[in-house]
Design goal:
By secondary structure, this protein is an alpha+beta fold. It is built from eight helices and eleven strands. A hairpin with a 4-residue loop joins strand 8 and strand 9. The chain starts with a helix and ends with a strand.
């Protein structure tokens, strides 16, 4: 072999070996961080291959972010060893024949001339509980519903109570427990039955027999629960009343988000329920344009995204965020 070609070949071998050693170490650190354990060697090797594909995707994306070509960053989070098919199949925002049809729920429109602040962030109100984690149960609809009631109740009474998602999972027969549901249907249930506290009815990540005790429930003076069409109405509702529940398509890019304003690939068909807790606008110096965004609270734990939150581009119906928005009005 020609000496120059041999040196190039040898350099490539060394680079590959160093790269392999680096990934081996990264894999060990990642498994330890997220307490990943696999049933056998074959399963671990499969997950390692998926993880490496995700690692390459994240590195390439963040290189674009470093160059100012993307407004958000990705991370090797707890979803990094899941295939695209597995991520797509974990839907918890689904239609079912028992749920209250959205067409039967009152619609809350607002005048386009309705004035609102330039930015809102209900996290500053001291009326939001810590970010929660739905775990392996497809109960995002319950977490979105409970989160809206927690903050609205606190804004009216000045008392912050963590309410029970498990009650909705077990007892709301119009939704499907760990197999999905709709916040607007769950709001109807809560309006009629009230909610127990989380400490009295603890979350278990699975659907069980209904253990609701009306003597331990908090009952709400619900004026109405309603849907909110279009993003300008959603912003008015968030600004004047409080957080709202929405559905989004939580696609592959979304699941790996860790910071910035998310505007990645997704469809307009929601499969996941989250809560809008505020909004704002950020100037992009590179493009010299103002970018409107939502502040969205997720139910995947504080180790996801930006401490459990994500900024999502606003006024473009990103990921179908304007398709299923709903909220509730309470009185004291």
């Amino acid at each position: 072999m020609h000496p120059e070609k041999f040196l190039l070949f040898l350099s490539a071998v060394i680079v590959c070996a160093l790269s392999s050693q680096f990934l081996d170490q990264e894999w060990k650190v990642w498994k330890s961080k997220y307490e990943k354990n696999y049933s056998n060697f074959r399963d671990e090797m499969f997950r390692r291959k998926v993880w490496e594909e995700t690692w390459n995707k994240v590195q390439k994306h963040n290189e674009l972010a470093d160059q100012g070509l993307s407004r958000y960053r990705m991370a090797m989070n707890k979803f990094a060893d899941m295939t695209s098919e597995e991520r797509s199949s974990s839907k918890c925002f689904t239609a079912n024949t028992k749920s209250t049809p959205q067409s039967n729920v009152p619609v809350q429109p607002y005048s386009k001339s309705h004035g609102i602040p330039e930015s809102v962030d209900w996290r500053e109100s001291n009326c939001m509980t810590p970010v929660k984690n739905q775990g392996l149960c497809g109960s995002c609809w319950a977490f979105a519903t409970v989160g809206v009631f927690e903050t609205h109740h606190c804004l009216k009474t000045k008392e912050l109570i963590e309410f029970s998602e498990q009650q909705l999972v077990d007892c709301d027969s119009r939704n499907q427990g760990c197999c999905g549901g709709f916040p607007h249907a769950a709001m109807a249930y809560v309006s009629h039955h009230g909610m127990m506290s989380a400490k009295d009815y603890e979350y278990s990540e699975k659907q069980m027999n209904c253990l609701f005790n009306p003597e331990n429930a908090v009952y709400f003076n619900v004026t109405k629960y309603y849907t909110v069409p279009e993003e300008h109405n959603m912003a008015i509702s968030v600004a004047t009343s409080g957080p709202i529940a929405v559905g989004i398509d939580a696609g592959h890019d979304f699941q790996l988000y860790c910071g910035g304003i998310f505007d990645g690939d997704c469809t307009t068909e929601p499969n996941h329920a989250v809560i809008i807790v505020g909004y704002g606008t950020e100037h992009d110096a590179k493009t010299d344009e103002d970018i409107d965004y939502w502040i969205v609270r997720n139910s995947w734990g504080e180790d996801w995204g930006d401490h459990g939150y994500v900024k999502m581009r606003r006024n473009v119906n990103l990921c179908g965020i304007a398709t299923f928005a709903s909220s509730v009005d309470l009185t004291r």
